Amino acid sequence: xxxxxxxxxxxxxxxxxxxxxxxxxxxxxxxxxxxxxxxxxxxxxxxxxxxxxxxxxxxxxxxxxxxxxxxxxxxxxxxxxxxxxxxxxxxxxxxxxxxxxxxxxxxxxxxxxxxxxxxxxxxxxxxxxxxxxxxxxxxxxxxxxxxxxxxxxxxxxxxxxxxxxxxxxxxxxxxxxxxxxxxxxxxxxxxxxxxxxxxxxxxxxxxxxxxxxxxxxxxxxxxxxxxxxxxxxxxxxxxxxxxxxxxxxxxxxxxxxxxxxxxxxxxxxxxxxxxxxxxxxxxxxxxxxxxxxxxxxxxxxxxxxxxxxxxxxxxxxxxxxxxxxxxxxxxxxxxxxxxxxxxxxxxxxxxxxxxxxxxxxxx
Length: 363
Known about the structure:
Elements: E1 2-18, E2 21-35, E3 38-45, E4 47-48, E5 53-54, H1 56-70, H2 82-85, H3 90-108, H4 112-115, E6 127-130, H5 135-148, E7 153-157, H6 164-185, E8 190-194, H7 201-213, E9 218-220, H8 229-237, E10 247-249, H9 256-262, E11 268-271, H10 273-276, H11 279-291, E12 295-298, H12 305-311, E13 320-321, E14 334-335, E15 338-340, E16 343-345, E17 355-356
Parallel strand pairs: 6-7, 7-8, 8-9, 9-10, 10-11, 11-12, 12-13
Antiparallel strand pairs: 1-2, 2-3, 4-5, 14-17, 15-16
């Protein structure tokens, strides 16, 4: 099996501002595995959660160092490769894991979701994201989304450096816009909020009841994630039962171990493939969360249609899809999941079902 890497750039149509900063463009890695005339493709890239960070250059170095060890192996059975994958950081493992799943589906001439016996008919609407900013700019971004698709689920970024007062103004402004659109169109719309760890405990304890009173349907990562896992869980525990509104862990939840640690204290988890290390761990997390009665959110960073097309294989298991990053790109070289209205469904093509430029043409 031959492993190859290519870099490609992704540029946002609208830069995204969250509590930790702003992103306008990223460089990602196309990871390919070639064997028996088939090529599997995956995607990964650097990211920063505030307490853990990975650089694209370091991820590439990990995969390049592993490449010689992969030469004697075939992409199947996937189980035989687990010791090699375990050596990698989550984002490096993600890129290779996706390429292996894509190859596997192509070998069997089936989309990955069908090999898992999942039902694309169970997919629900994805949310679209509004970054931090002045109210006029946030409303303009919302109107731009509505020109692009009939978005019924809106995720608003909070945790503003200007303070909780600014957060409250944004919530009220967006809720008023949603109410006007609902009155005009007769359709239900919902508002989710994501603080990206931008609140301290006292602020979060005050905001949860306030948000619930205003009809917000969930709050994601209200507190900053902590490397001390006991302290991290204690923060969520201190918010438990304050308001009838789901609290979802994102930056605090990377893998199955984190899920089990946080399960008594949260109502849901946000799975992102570069955090989990790819589809294998993400599938395990999604099934376990559902068995424990937790809601599953499926999220993204600044990802193309390749990475989101891979994540889309899990959508039938997901209560709160949040795969909108590729919809905000001006130079995405890939196409993948099908968008019908505001519902994403995994492709019916074999493997991850993603099409795009051949590896040698990606710059």
